[in-house]
Each structure stands twice: as structure tokens, then as C-alpha cells.
Amino acid sequence: MRDVIGWKHAAVLAVALLAVGCSSNSKKELPPAELTKFTEEVVLKKQWSRSIGDGQGESFNMLVPAIENDRIYAADVTGVVMALDRMNGDVIWKKDLDLPVSGAVGVGYGLVMLGTLKGEVIAMDASTGEEKWRARVTSEVLAPPATNGDVVVVQTQDDRVIGLDASTGDRRWIYESTPAVLTLRGTGAPIVTNRLAVAGLSTGKVVALDTQNGVPVWEQRVAVPQGRSELDRVVDIDGGLLLSGGVLYVASYQGRVAGLELESGRVLWQRDASSYAGVAQGFGNVYVSLASGTVEGIDERSSSALWSNDSLARRQLSAPEVFSSYVAVGDLEGYLHLLSQVDGRFVGRERIDSDGLRARPLVVGDMIYVFGNSGKLEALTIR
């Protein structure tokens, strides 16, 4: 039977306590690091703000908005789905599905796609918000579905990857794998190209499937489970995959961060790391939020660390995002931090949502979009 750790930080804490040894009962959980002062070089200016229902809710949901053209789409845990003008925040349409949304939001080819705790996938018309179809899958969906216009691909909590007809929602194929005994609660969103559907699994593997029939094209292991206990052996790929220039970037918990060749799965470079949040890429470098709260900049050519900033230890960081010449990352107290891409020093900071920032920030042009845990969606620029 597979067990699921409901809160990622609980798993991180448990592993950390095991790492320091079980012989001492005097060990106590360390609090999040206090924020250090710095000379502010960059000031963020709010362009607009909008409330998206109840946001992430009380469970450890990872609902991330999605942007296509001049619209941004967002959903909350209760099934409120909204399409907004990304430039000014005006509401284009709003729907209330009254469903426990847990995988959101996927967008593309005229569809807005959501997954639920009840194991449903809902496709909506991106222009109007009208429901086009819904399909039943094998278990809860904790990450956004993805599409290439022909097939909608969804990854379920039980490590199945399912291809649905983009027009009707009918199942075309299913890829089944044996999940790990113990996992973090979550999955990464699949990436879909014309030919490949790529997903990261709870066993530390990345699999690329043929979009026409779900047959594996290649598999690559990014992390090898190690240790005596099942907690020690958790190697989920939860932070999502990133595709840029034919290179697939992936990070696993208690494993590695790596760059893979998309077409073959060949490892181009790799480095030991532990992350449940994910990576960003820019200017030949990779940026990763580690489970410890450290943010690292990594040189793709040598796989060596360019810099490391551990000042945000235990602050449960979001995935990073490249914004202008900076790296943006959110934390559990709702601060958005800007770090220099050159040396990782702090250059700016803005508090967005006191309930915290769990979702990866989104960047288009000179604007960054931040979705707070309470449901506050805010667009900011550099002043």
C-alpha cells in the first residue's frame, strides 16, 4: 500500500530530523530563518490585484495560474475559475464549478484544463469559460493537465499518465507504473510536445511517452532511493519539469537536479540536490529552490554552483522564476524575494500575501504575476 505525506514541509522536517540522528530527543524543530536586512536596489510596483476565491485552501495544494497571450487564468480550491486581462486585471469571465480543484491551471489550444481531488479532468472553453467536457481518471489530480491540441495529458497521484482526446475527453491511452511506497503529496505537471508526453514520477524517474499511443520512448532515472527508512528513500519529482531549447530540466527530492536531452533522455549534466519546488533557467544558468530553503545558481556547462544563498533556510520556498536580471522566489510568510542572477545577493523584497506564496511566480515581459495562498493574484513591475 502506498502512503502519501500530506504536507511537504512535514516530510522535509522528518527527513531532517532523521539526518541528525535519533539518539537525541532534545532536538527541536528550528524555526524559519529571520529575514536579513540588505540594501534595496530594486523596488516592485503593484500594477493590479485581484482575489481568486479561497486560493490554495487549507490543504497543501499547488494551484498555479497560467498565461496565454493577453489573458491569465486562475482557479481556487473550491472551483472558482477566472480569466483576466493580464495587463489590467479586468475579469473577462468567471465560473464556479463547485468542485475540489487540486490540479490547476493548464491552458492551450483554446482549452482551460483542471483536475480535481475526485479524479476528474474538466476542459473549458478558454474564450468563454463554458465547459466542453469532463473525464474520469484513476485517482486525484494534483497538477495541471497539458495539451498539444490533439491529446490532453494528465498525471494522477497514483503515478499513472493518461492521454485524453482533446476534443471529447475520451481516453486514448494510459501508462501505468508502480509508485513509491511513500511519497510527498503532489506531482509535477507533464510537458506535452507534438510527439512526446513527458512526466516525472514518484520513483525518481522521468518517462517520455508517444503522444499517439502512450508507449514509452525513453526513461531516465534522476534519483536513486537511498537509506534504510522509507522517509530516507523518498525521491519524488514534484517541482514540475521545465523545457527550454530542447533541454528538459528536472529536480527531485533527495536526488539530483539535471538537464536531459528531450528527444533521447540523455543526461547532459547533473548535480546532487533536494528540491520539491522546481527550477528556473536563464542566461545559461539554472536556478533551484532547495528543500532546505537555500537558493542555488548552477552553471549548466560545468554543473558547478555559481552561488548559493542560504539566508532563507526553512522558509518553504516556491519554485524560482527568472525576472529581468533577477531570480524571484516566494516564501511561507508571503514575501517575494528578488536575488541577483550574478551572485545571488538580495536586491529586492515585497510582501504580497501574509498567508504565504507557494505557487511559482509567472513572468511575461516586464511583469511578474504572483498568486498568494489566500487567493490574492497580483501583477507587479520594477519601478
UniProtKB/TrEMBL annotation:
<keyword id="KW-0732">Signal</keyword>
<dbReference type="GO" id="GO:0043165">
    <property type="term" value="P:Gram-negative-bacterium-type cell outer membrane assembly"/>
</dbReference>
<dbReference type="InterPro" id="IPR002372">
    <property type="entry name" value="PQQ_rpt_dom"/>
</dbReference>
<keyword id="KW-0449">Lipoprotein</keyword>
<comment type="subunit">
    <text>Part of the Bam complex.</text>
</comment>
<comment type="function">
    <text>Part of the outer membrane protein assembly complex, which is involved in assembly and insertion of beta-barrel proteins into the outer membrane.</text>
</comment>
<comment type="similarity">
    <text>Belongs to the BamB family.</text>
</comment>
<dbReference type="InterPro" id="IPR015943">
    <property type="entry name" value="WD40/YVTN_repeat-like_dom_sf"/>
</dbReference>
<dbReference type="GO" id="GO:0051205">
    <property type="term" value="P:protein insertion into membrane"/>
</dbReference>
<dbReference type="InterPro" id="IPR018391">
    <property type="entry name" value="PQQ_b-propeller_rpt"/>
</dbReference>
<dbReference type="InterPro" id="IPR011047">
    <property type="entry name" value="Quinoprotein_ADH-like_sf"/>
</dbReference>
<protein>
    <recommendedName>
        <fullName>Outer membrane protein assembly factor BamB</fullName>
    </recommendedName>
</protein>
<dbReference type="InterPro" id="IPR017687">
    <property type="entry name" value="BamB"/>
</dbReference>
<dbReference type="Pfam" id="PF13360">
    <property type="entry name" value="PQQ_2"/>
</dbReference>
<keyword id="KW-0472">Membrane</keyword>
<keyword id="KW-0998">Cell outer membrane</keyword>
<feature type="domain" description="Pyrrolo-quinoline quinone repeat">
    <location>
        <begin position="79"/>
        <end position="309"/>
    </location>
</feature>
<dbReference type="GO" id="GO:0009279">
    <property type="term" value="C:cell outer membrane"/>
</dbReference>
<keyword id="KW-0564">Palmitate</keyword>
